[in-house]
């Protein structure tokens, strides 16, 4: 059986590609195929394509009409061309159908056998409102944000971290990928001509320097339609911040561009940079840290809640250290709980990492419950110890979406909370099926 070329090489030639995508998918793919064949002829082992290499729509409705599933015909074509040319392929931005009116902006990594090795769904969405300039750009109206940072993938050039365009402006993402072992950071993009001229190269070189990584940024170029143009200037930058290869910047006299640039990824040079300036070793992790909120809705086990059992069917979210579940008796609609996986009675018993994970999860669940119940406020409550009203000796947080006039006096909610799980409460306990149905509905907010 033939194995993919994924062993790390000390030196590896890569190609960064640039072109002007339109709403013609067939034409775009013909260009992509030509660029990939060119990359192979020059002995590149990985070719990087820009964001929206499948298409750039001219209308909002066209975005949904042209979108495809990962197992659709276009991705099959990408996989075939990678396999036929025996080259790895970074498909920098694919409109992945999520529903009839929602897509993911997805970055696919395909190996030289045509296998999909990794899928990153863009987590930072570009939403800007400037009324005085009549600017309203809301990517969130079109795209659904991803939910996770993908670990770097082993490629012939090194461990590759995947991102997309606007992610470039969030250095935390790059730092986390570097901490996870990334040698290369990739930012396929479609920067506007204005923001590209101001920030593009500066941001990319900054990410390379501060993370001591190679940075590869394939870019869209030129005039896609009457309403949209992109800056171009695809770049490969080394860990010292030096531009090793580049494609043309947008020129108003040249509306279209199809180009490719090559550079060598040298892991020995990368190690030399890190050894001569050991920035990572000098980080003060005793004072500050950056953590990842890992999460899942796939729950295959019941959880202990002190001496009680929480059925897996009622758990709609779990992180590394805690889980969220529907309540057996609600004070208000949408009253849910977040509890630690480790059974311990007090907040002060938790580690710093558990505390951070717990409250990051609480905020994420709060946002979801407010959206589900069309609420603009929430009561977040921890009864930390018996004298504080805790009846289940296990750290947990109550999340209660609030609406106007839901109580005669606002603070009455605490009285209701104190007695809601009392044996004397005449309100009946909810049926397991009702709680399960609610959990299933809530999972849809987190499922990809």
For the record, what CATH class of the largest domain applies?
Alpha Beta
- Radius of gyration over alpha carbons? 25 Å
Strand order of the largest sheet: 5-4-3-2-1-16
Shape label: elongated
Number of strands: 24
Distance between the termini: 33 Å
Unreliable sequence segments = none
CATH architecture heading of the largest domain? 4-Layer Sandwich
So how many helices? 9
At the fourth level of CATH, the homologous superfamily of the largest domain is: Carbon-nitrogen hydrolase
Question: What does this 3D model show about the protein?
Answer:
The chain folds into two domains: 11-282, Carbon-nitrogen hydrolase (Nitrilase/N-carbamoyl-D-aminoacid amidohydrolase, 4-Layer Sandwich); 295-443, HIT-like (HIT family, subunit A). The mean pLDDT is 92. The protein contains nine helices and 24 strands. The chain is of the alpha+beta class and 448 residues long. The chain has a six-stranded mixed beta sheet with strand order 5-4-3-2-1-16. The chain has helices at 25-41, 60-66, 73-85, 171-179, 193-211, 267-276, 352-372, 412-419, 432-443, and strands spanning 11-18, 46-48, 88-99, 102-110, 116-121, 127-130, 135-138, 153-155, 158-162, 184-186, 214-217, 221-225, 228-231, 235-237, 243-246, 259-266, 295-296, 303-305, 308-310, 315-319, 322-326, 336-340, 377-381, 396-402. Substrate binds at residues 327, 383, 389-392, 398. Homotetramer.
Structure keywords:
448 residues; alpha+beta; 2 domains; six-stranded mixed beta sheet; Nitrilase/N-carbamoyl-D-aminoacid amidohydrolase; HIT family, subunit A; 24 strands
